[in-house]
Write a sequence for this structure.
């Protein structure tokens, strides 16, 4: 039984487990202490000093102050309020003042702290940093003049992703967050996951926008502009319009996309079903031959880039199947173009993704056919929301729209790609039935669901054969498993990896939930619940049962892993050297 500690916070007796910080103890009894650099389980540097409390005669940072018996803690005295206010005023003194132009205005933690602490005038004027904008990366833009040196981006890159592409460089006023040797993110080990954006309290990090390019394409009468939407977008987009976290807005999203002027609105769930057909067949082939196991998923561009840079010897284990939106883009520019009698060069494919890594993936030369990129532009969920707001669309009251044929019908298996474990579950629904030769009564593989960082499972077929799976999210967890595989300590047949904790539902392009809300609810769990609810409501829940998937194989592709399928739907990967974009 855990040892307990009793102490006083603001005259209230609190009892917590030994080792608990004062910050977490206060939270447990409904006392909110402001923070800036703190991220539970990820960053606990005590660097910003915003969370100061009185502990006897001293002011101490509550995020690192461990509770001890008989402590007397005060969180709301004049001394505490004044100290916190001064700390934030110092941060503001050399902060770039362009709040009305910043992408985080209205959802900026520094802005919120200033309001809560009633900072209504500047008492200090500091020397402003002048640092060049880092906008070379295809995925991310860094504005160091807005950085408050909280270190959260550094911590998530190191502790959650084990990539360490950035760190605190120099000392004193000259301290900045940067990459080794002063290189841009594009020349670093950055895997473009965007988790640094999600934890940044201000606007120092954001996605590289493509909104204007998409508006230009829509306005061009010579272009047929086709949009496709990933499954995770529909369970998060509503948050940008004040709807509860985890609200499904599929139909409203489709209606909004039509109002924006897209010629066709397709569902990336169709591409996910294609992925299962191709990747599932690839898995069956490898299981039969016993070669190049485990098969590792290739849907996540951050994970693929991680393997290329950190584990190049395991590249042959990556599935050669393109990710769902890239597959769908290739099909749009071939099968669809032929059906519509349109020159593929006149088709512009726009993907709405929960991921900034997809912006990097979109421009990879390996993801093109005959010199044409499969996808032309990638917009994040946040960018789509900005476009909808630009037109003044009343999103909440929109009527439900429906996707267009022939790529508007996906299965429930395609939907669950948005949550960690979803790709593995979707694959098992199909692979099991093909190998077993019989229909499944129960199709939910709950063993691969949930938010545990590493989930291992064995699925036994009727003939006694077992498929050993591992589902991983967060690349620090992936590194552990890859190290085990290299050493021969673990054996799997199929591994799903998503770079972002929770999977695509918590991707680097999703809505940034305000800190006060994030501290009270499990955002990932709510979005995942919505994903699985959408799956249950789908009339078709297995990729190989999707009649539109059957049709495209009958009319165009032949069979999974055919020559035509390999030309359009498969690719290759290569080891990364000095520059991450080589």
């Amino acid at each position: 039984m855990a040892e307990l500690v009793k102490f006083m916070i603001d005259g209230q007796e609190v009892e917590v487990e030994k080792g608990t910080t004062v910050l977490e103890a206060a939270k447990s009894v409904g006392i909110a202490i402001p923070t800036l650099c703190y991220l539970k389980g990820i960053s606990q540097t005590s660097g910003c000093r915003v969370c100061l409390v009185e502990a006897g005669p001293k002011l101490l940072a509550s995020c690192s102050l461990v509770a001890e018996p008989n402590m007397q803690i005060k969180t709301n005295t004049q001394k505490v309020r004044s100290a916190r206010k001064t700390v934030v005023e110092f941060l503001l003194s050399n902060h770039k003042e362009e709040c009305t132009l910043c992408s985080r205005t209205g959802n900026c933690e520094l802005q919120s702290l200033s309001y809560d602490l009633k900072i209504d005038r500047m008492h200090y004027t500091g020397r402003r940093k002048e640092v060049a904008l880092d906008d070379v990366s295809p995925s991310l833009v860094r504005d160091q003049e807005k950085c408050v040196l909280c270190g959260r981006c550094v911590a998530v890159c190191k502790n959650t992703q084990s990539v360490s592409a950035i760190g605190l460089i120099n000392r004193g006023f000259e301290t900045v967050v940067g990459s080794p040797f002063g290189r841009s993110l594009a020349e670093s080990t950055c895997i473009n996951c965007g988790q640094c954006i999600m934890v940044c309290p201000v606007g120092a990090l954001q996605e590289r926008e493509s909104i204007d390019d998409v508006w230009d394409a829509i306005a061009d009468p010579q272009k047929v502009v086709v949009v496709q939407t990933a499954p995770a977008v529909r369970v998060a987009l509503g948050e940008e319009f004040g709807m509860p976290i985890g609200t499904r807005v599929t139909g409203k999203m489709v209606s909004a996309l039509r109002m924006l002027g897209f010629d066709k609105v397709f569902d990336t769930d169709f591409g996910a079903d294609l992925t299962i057909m191709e990747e599932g067949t690839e898995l069956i082939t490898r299981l039969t031959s016993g070669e190049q196991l485990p098969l590792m998923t290739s849907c996540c561009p951050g994970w693929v880039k991680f393997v290329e840079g950190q584990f190049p010897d395991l590249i042959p284990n990556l599935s050669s199947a393109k990710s769902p939106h890239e597959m769908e883009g290739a099909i749009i520019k071939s099968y669809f173009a032929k059906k519509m009698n349109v020159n593929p060069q006149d088709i512009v494919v726009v993907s709405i993704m929960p991921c900034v890594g997809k912006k990097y993936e979109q421009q990879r030369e390996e993801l093109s056919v005959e010199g044409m990129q499969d996808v032309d532009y990638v917009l994040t969920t946040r960018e789509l929301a900005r476009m909808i707001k630009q037109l003044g669309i009343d999103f909440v009251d929109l009527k439900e729209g429906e996707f267009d044929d022939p790529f508007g019908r996906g299965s429930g298996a395609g939907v669950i790609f948005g949550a960690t474990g979803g790709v593995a579950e979707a694959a098992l629904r199909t692979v099991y039935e093909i190998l077993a030769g019989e229909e499944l009564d129960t199709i939910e593989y709950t063993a691969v669901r949930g938010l545990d960082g590493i989930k291992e499972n064995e699925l036994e077929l009727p003939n006694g054969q077992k498929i050993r799976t591992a589902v991983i999210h967060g690349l620090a967890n992936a590194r552990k498993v890859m190290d085990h595989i290299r050493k021969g300590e673990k054996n799997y047949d199929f591994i799903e990896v998503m770079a972002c904790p929770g999977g695509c539902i918590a991707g680097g392009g999703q809505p940034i939930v305000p800190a006060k809300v994030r501290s009270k609810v499990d955002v990932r769990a709510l979005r995942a619940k919505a994903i699985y609810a959408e799956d249950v409501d789908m009339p078709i829940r297995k990729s190989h049962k999707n009649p539109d998937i059957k049709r495209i194989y009958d009319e165009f592709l032949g069979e999974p892993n055919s020559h035509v399928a390999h030309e359009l739907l498969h690719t290759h990967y290569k080891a990364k050297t000095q520059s991450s974009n080589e």
